[in-house]
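User: Modeling request: complex.
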Amino acid sequence: MSLLSDSIYYEKSSETLERLTESLEDIGDQMEIDDYDIEYSSGVLTLRLGIKGTYVINKQPPNKQIWLSSPVSGPERYDFDSEHGAWFCRQKDESLGTLLNREISDALGVEITLPVK
Amino acid sequence: MFSLAKQFAFTSMRQTPAVRAATIVGSRPVLSAKRFYHERVIDHYENPRNMGSLDKSDPTVGTGLVGAPACGDVMRLQIKVDDGGKIVDVKFKTFGCGSAIASSSYITERVRGMSLDDALKIRNTDIAKELCLPPVKLHCSMLAEDAIRSAIKDFRTKRGGDVIHGAKASAASQSMAA
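Assistant: Request completed. Predicted assembly structure:
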């Protein structure tokens, strides 16, 4: 469980999800991909990639975490690391940004870089 | 606590029909799926396998407790292990959504009769696939995987190490009883 204060958690998680939403919307507009849909509401970001599956990235305030559901790697939970300014998962010690860049680039067949570490 | 949760969950499941709404967009009919519970999830919910509890103080019983009420899901999974390292009985109690209940019910079905090492090989993806869990409910399957690991860890900790067949295991249980 994170030692983050509620206000910092709120600030960091909102920032991360808003940045992801904006950049994923831009990617969708630029690339014109079939069945691409992105929705962000009530702290839940849903990214649909047609047959490639659906990503759900959401705030989990009771744990001060961000939760991810990936059609490729399954569910994962991320805690904020203030030192690195990034969200890390407990087991694989990989940041959320690293995983999303890799998996979404793979799914779209083109290298993308999201503004999230 | 658990029966209240079941009542509440039961009501909300009944109000969520399994519906696919067809709408016409342009000249093509478009199917939009409303949120629904897969029939396998409903089956586990209405006919849970192995619901109940084992004696926590029994040296052959391992208890796993995972989740947190604040998150909405709590699972307790208990296993009874014989001297051969085989799971001979298993019980669960879950507070949470239909997918959480189904995930824990299903995993108890899977592990019954398994060795501890085989039970540790069960992945959340197996559970999610079997129950056709939607993306937002994959976390429930992860919790069920955590629950069996927690139960096995508890059992092994109680025994002071790995369960080994025959003599060594009985010696361990004798020294615990002494």
